[in-house]
Amino acid sequence: MYSFMGGGLFCAGVGNILLIVSTATDYWMQYRHSGNYMHQGLWRYCVTGKCYSHTDSIAYWDATRAFMILSLLACFIGIIIGILAFIHYSSFERFDKTFTAGILFFISCIFVLLAMAVYTGVTVNYYGKRYGNWRFSWSYITGWVAAVLTFFSGIFYMCAYRMHECPRNTSPH
């Protein structure tokens, strides 16, 4: 049980760091516009070394930002509850902390997947038709890796919950 919880905490910790990096950095996509290479993130876009804030409130950026922030919060709260379950913190006996942490990691994964789906769909349909020389960049890929890690965190915590709830009968028959 503790090995599953330890693996879940490790994946969730790394996943949460990757969520922060992905959300905060400016390399979700790169493209060429008017002879200059540009890159943009959720908060800023950069042209030839100068970065500018996104001034337009475009719905897909807002949705992607919101889903990424909700994912960060769910993962962070899941990590806290997961640590409390790992050290057997005894308050809140009405709910199982291992199960709750697993559900929060799955919720975090769903939010990341929603953010990535919105961003991918709009980017491919808009930039794919407008610019010929564009690509997704490392911040975007980091978001996908974080989605996988939060999913496995949920799997590990659900396995730990299952082992705790259904212990094997070790007594001889």
Q: Which whole number gives the mean pLDDT?
A: 87
Q: What is the number of E strands?
A: 5
Nearest-angstrom radius of gyration? 20 Å
* Outline type: elongated
Distance between the termini: 24 Å
Q: Strand order across the biggest sheet?
A: 4-3-2-1-5
- Please state the structural category: alpha+beta
How can the largest sheet be summarized?
A: 5 strands, antiparallel
Q: Would you identify the regions where 5 or more consecutive residues have pLDDT less than 50?
A: none
Q: Beta-strand level of the residues, as a percent range?
A: 5-15%
Helix proportion: 55-70%
Number of alpha- plus pi-helical segments: 4
Q: What's the helix-strand series?
A: HEEEEHHEH
Task: Write up this protein.
- By secondary structure, this protein is of the alpha+beta class.
- It has 4 helices and 5 strands; from the N terminus they run H-E-E-E-E-H-H-E-H.
- Strands 4-3-2-1-5 form a 5-stranded antiparallel sheet.
Please outline the helices and strands.
Elements lengths: L1 H23 L4 E5 L2 E5 L3 E4 L2 E4 L5 H28 L10 H34 L3 E3 L1 H28 L8
Antiparallel strand pairs: 1-2, 1-5, 2-3, 3-4
Please provide a brief summary of the model.
By secondary structure, this protein is α+β, with helices and mostly antiparallel strands.
What descriptive keywords fit this protein?
5 strands; single chain; 173 residues; 4 helices; 5-stranded antiparallel sheet
